[in-house]
């Protein structure tokens, strides 16, 4: 195992940990070698010390994508693995910082970042260091079944990292394996909490409940529901899939629960020109939520919502809408689950996107994954911990190795001020995109994401063709929904990267 880790660390040979840390800590201004896009204002702060001193200065495209080597690799892989969703065959050893290399050594500026999952850049030296630590080796080769056999250090591991960034008002965590897993377990917690309140604290299960549960019948298997929103995405497992409403291909042929879906606001842009229309839209959506909570055929135990509907098309709503939603859930004694799987860990200019809402009462549960590189959910109410052991349980209950990675991510985010950095970089990038939208109004429509860091999107009438063309100029970018182009750069994405991105978009739109 140690030799394997040492072998994998060769990928970091171009940037030593010591050198990278020294350079990242310096305050001197670095004159970037990238010229800003035409007509895009650059202030005196736009020149920044690079987080990766040996990072490439620009993309480099040598072949078509996929190139000859990639085409052979795809054909071989397809014999044993479904490649129909493949974006590109990657060479991670030669990827660095904000740049991803493909198998043909084409080097692309990556503003998709493994579907919003890479926070600190490829081959980050701080993560390389923890990956080769004795703690990581132990976590990998002696992986514990955490519910039964946690290590003595587990309390400190949780408190020093994952719980140090817990959302306000939430002080406990359940660790999991993936975003879907986090949401599934959050739903279970909500249902058990619902029945606990109905049954009364301390009341035992009845013999009828115990026997009917084994036959999937009431009262042991009660009719309860989770309310979600149209175009929402919460995962692909059975429970989470019943709350996923983004595309039919995600759900077709899969049995599902009969659970309600409410309208999510479809705002009109630009926001400043549609204030009254958007207020009316959000008010009607809140009314729809209340109607469903009060009239559904069975009790609604919880409402689950994304701060920004990511897979469904990058739809936004105002803080006022979310505050209104929180008031409704409190009014009707329904839990509020905020799905921060894609929005969490700094991408919106706040560590947690729901911090933008300024809630008077925190969400009941917040789920996370992706940029955390681990998964789970936070909660505060002790009654959300089931009243008996093994009710919220599986063999692994997360992965200490991935939690060690998240703890290091947290330290780097704090040390480098990456949340504030992302807010500033996002404002700079949004300003540039606004100018491009005026120049190409038919191609950049409904630009959204102002004041939400780099969590920016717009609608493109020829979206798929645009994404493909962006690869030819060296940018890996993603889409969502029917027509949205979504930006998901890393937290180490800087203004000189934004300049390259803006230049590339303008080049493609001019062609």
Fold and architecture overview:
The protein is an alpha/beta fold and 511 residues long. The protein folds into 2 domains: 2-128 and 418-510, Aspartate Aminotransferase, domain 1 (Alpha-Beta Complex); 146-198 and 221-414, Aspartate Aminotransferase, domain 2. Helices cover 36% and strands 11% of the residues. The strands form 3 sheets. Strands 3-9-8-7-6-4-5 form a 7-stranded mixed beta sheet, sandwiched between helices. Strands 10-11-14-13 form a 4-stranded antiparallel beta sheet, covered by helices on one side. A 3-stranded mixed beta sheet has the order 1-2-12. Helix 7 (154-162) runs parallel beside helix 13 and helix 14 (418-439) runs parallel beside helix 16 (495-510). The chain is globular.
List segments where confidence is low: pLDDT < 50 over at least 5 consecutive residues: 1-47
**Helix content range:** 25-40%
CATH C-level category of the largest domain = Alpha Beta
Give the H and E element order.
Answer: HHHEEHHHHEHHEHEHEHEEEHHEEHEEEH
Largest sheet: 7 strands, mixed
CATH homologous superfamily of the largest domain? Type I PLP-dependent aspartate aminotransferase-like (Major domain)
Strand proportion: 5-15%
Report the CATH topology name of the largest domain. Answer: Aspartate Aminotransferase, domain 2
Family: Belongs to the class-III pyridoxal-phosphate-dependent aminotransferase family.
Protein name: 4-aminobutyrate aminotransferase
Organism: Orbilia brochopaga
Cofactor: pyridoxal 5'-phosphate
């Amino acid at each position: 195992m140690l030799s394997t880790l040492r072998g994998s660390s060769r990928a970091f040979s171009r940037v030593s940990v010591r050198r990278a840390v020294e350079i990242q800590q310096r305050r001197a201004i670095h004159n970037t070698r990238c010229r800003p896009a035409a007509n895009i204002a650059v202030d005196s702060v736009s020149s920044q010390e690079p987080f990766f001193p040996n990072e490439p200065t620009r993309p480099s495209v040598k072949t078509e994508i996929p190139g000859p080597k990639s085409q052979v690799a795809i054909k071989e892989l397809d014999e044993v693995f479904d490649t129909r969703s493949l974006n590109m065959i990657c060479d991670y050893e030669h990827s660095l910082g904000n740049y991803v290399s493909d198998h043909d050594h084409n080097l692309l500026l990556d503003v998709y970042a493994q579907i919003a999952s890479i926070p600190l850049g490829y081959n980050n030296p701080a993560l390389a260091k923890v990956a080769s630590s004795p703690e990581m080796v132990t976590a990998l080769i002696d992986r514990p079944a955490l519910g039964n056999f946690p290590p003595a250090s587990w309390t400190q591991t949780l408190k020093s990292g994952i719980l140090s960034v817990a959302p306000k008002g939430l002080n406990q965590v359940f660790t999991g394996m993936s975003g879907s897993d986090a949401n599934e377990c959050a739903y279970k917690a909500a249902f058990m909490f619902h029945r606990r309140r109905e049954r009364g604290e301390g009341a035992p299960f009845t013999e009828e409940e115990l026997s009917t549960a084994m036959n999937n019948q009431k009262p042991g298997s009660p009719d309860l529901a989770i309310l979600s929103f149209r175009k929402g995405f919460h995962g692909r497992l059975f429970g989470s899939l019943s709350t996923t409403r983004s595309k039919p291909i995600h759900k077709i042929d899969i049995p599902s629960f009969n659970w309600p879906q409410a309208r999510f606001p479809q705002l009109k842009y630009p926001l400043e020109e549609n204030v009254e229309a958007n207020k009316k839209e959000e008010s009607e959506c809140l009314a729809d939520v209340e109607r469903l909570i009060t009239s559904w055929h069975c009790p609604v135990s919880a409402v689950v919502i994304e701060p920004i509907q990511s897979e469904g098309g990058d739809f936004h709503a105002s803080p006022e809408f979310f505050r209104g939603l929180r008031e409704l859930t409190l009014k009707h004694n329904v839990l509020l689950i905020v799905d921060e799987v894609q929005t969490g860990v700094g991408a919106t200019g706040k560590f947690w996107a729901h911090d933008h809402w300024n809630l008077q009462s925190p969400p009941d549960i917040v789920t996370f994954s992706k940029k955390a590189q681990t998964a789970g959910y936070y909660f505060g109410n002790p009654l959300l911990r089931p009243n008996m052991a093994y009710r919220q349980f599986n063999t692994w209950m997360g992965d200490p190795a991935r939690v060690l990675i998240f703890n290091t991510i947290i330290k780097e985010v704090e040390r480098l001020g990456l949340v504030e950095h992302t807010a500033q970089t996002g404002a700079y990038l949004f300003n540039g995109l606004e100018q491009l939208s005026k120049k190409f109004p038919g191609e950049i429509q409904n630009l959204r994401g102002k004041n939400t860091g780099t969590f920016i999107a717009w609608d493109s009438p020829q979206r798929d063709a645009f994404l493909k063309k962006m690869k030819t100029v060296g940018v890996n970018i993603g889409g969502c929904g029917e027509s949205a182009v979504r930006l998901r750069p890393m937290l180490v994405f800087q203004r000189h990267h934004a300049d390259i991105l803006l230049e590339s978009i303008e080049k493609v739109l001019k062609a």
